[in-house]
Structure formats: C-alpha cells, structure tokens
Amino acid sequence: MHLDDHNIIFEDNHLIIINKPAGLLVQGDNTGDKSLIDLVKEYLKIKYSKKGNVFLGLVNRIDRPTSGIVILSTKTSKALSRMNSIFKNREIKKLYWCIISKSFPKDHGTLTGWFRKNSKLNKSFVYDKKVNNSKLGSLKYKKIKDFKRYSLFEVNLETGRHHQIRTHFSKLGYPIVGDLKYGAKRSLKDGSIHLHSRRIIFQHPIKKVKIDLIAKPPKNALWTASLFD
C-alpha cells in the first residue's frame, strides 16, 4: 500500500492529515505489520528526496479496525506541541460516524460515564459511578439515517477516552457493526468495524486559520448506502 490523493486530505509545511483505511495500524506494534507512520515517512522521503530520517509527530490515534482522520506534524516539533495543546484543552471538534442496530431507542442524546482501561485485554469498561483509575468521558450523538436493519449515527466526541464510542454503545447493548471485541455477533470480512473518524474542526497551530475537514468513509455496502441511499 502507498499514500495517494484519496488518503491525504490536507498537507502543508506543518501538518499532514490522512484518511486512514480500516485495518491499517497507526503505529507499529509487535505484529511487525507496516503502519501509517511507515507509509507517511516513505511518502515524505520521496517528496523531499531525503535519504535519512524525516521528522514526523503523531498528534492523534484511531483504532486499527477504525477508519478516518489521523493528524501528523511534519518538519519540526513546533506544530506537534501546539496540536497537543489543542487536544489537551479540547479546542478541537471531532465528529465520528458509526453504524449500529436500527432498534437503538433514541435519535439523539448525551452519554457520560467513567472509563477504565484494561491494558492486558486492550479493552475499556465504562461505569455509572467513579471507580479506581477511571476517567470521566462524554459524547453527544444523533441519528443521521435509517437503513433496513441498521442506523447511521453521528457522534461528537467531547473527550478522548480509550475505545470510548465502542465501549459506551456496547454497554447499552448496541455494539458497532463488526465489533466482535465489544459484543457484535458477526465480524466483517476485512476485520474492520463500522466506526469512522469523519470530521475535524480546529484552528491551524501556526497559520491560525480555521481547518474544517471531512474524510470519506470506506467503500463498502453500508458506508456507500449512508452517503447515497
């Protein structure tokens, strides 16, 4: 795999923003599989005819089976430190799309809870009350479209807890389509789940202009229906 115009949705001298395909690691792990970081470094080396290492800072991550927006800083650490502050201070709006069962009882609402990550399982659990080593998380959701058996929801992620969207909808009994880890009945052939980092809105850390970007979802039946049905 290599990066092309479909994957790169924004690029300047400070940031490169990628629409990551589902199934691709953001960072390398013990599997040894090629990661998004590897692909971007290769792309930058070719673009700038650089033989040695290139600076590349990772601003945000999304899960391997999830698709959508990943932000990286290039050239120097200046943009990276400022983008880290933007995330820390919640000066960025992050919108996700997810597909769950049509029987979900509400069309819009807010979900809050206390999240605790189990690193051994690489899984999070959400509680109604604070427990040891838990962090408060919240999100807003609204239904966009109904299909025959499923519904498309937009999620405004107000905090960035580990597996937050996946965990919360699973706790309510409505796991994301394909998400076996969080209770879906069936996996998808490509190992993906129907969760997509759809849109980000923030102020550019250097140029101080508004950045508002949308990433197209993967090309499969349900995602395609969500756009064109």
How would you describe the overall organization of this protein?
There is one protein chain. This protein is α+β, with helices and mostly antiparallel strands. The chain is 17% helix and 35% strand. It contains four helices and eleven strands, in the order ββαββαβββββαββα. Strands 1, 2, 3, 4, 5, 6, 7, 8, 9, 10 and 11 form an eleven-stranded mixed β-sheet that branches. Strand 6 and strand 7 form a beta hairpin. The longest helix has 12 residues. It is globular and about 55 Å long.
- The separation of the N and C termini measures 30 Å
Structural class of the helices, strands and pairings? alpha+beta
Largest sheet: 11 strands, mixed
Strand fraction equals: 25-35%
Overall form: globular
- Runs with pLDDT <50, length 5+? none
Order of helices and strands: EEHEEHEEEEEHEEH
The number of helical runs is 4
Helix content: 10-25%
Mean pLDDT value: 92
Radius of gyration: 18 Å
Number of strand segments: 11
Question: Would you spell out the secondary-structure blueprint of this structure?
Answer:
Layout: E1 8-11, E2 15-20, H1 36-47, E3 56-58, E4 67-74, H2 78-88, E5 93-101, E6 108-118, E7 123-127, E8 135-146, E9 150-157, H3 164-171, E10 195-203, E11 210-214, H4 221-228
Parallel strand pairs: 4-10
Antiparallel strand pairs: 1-2, 2-4, 3-4, 5-9, 5-10, 6-7, 6-8, 8-9, 10-11
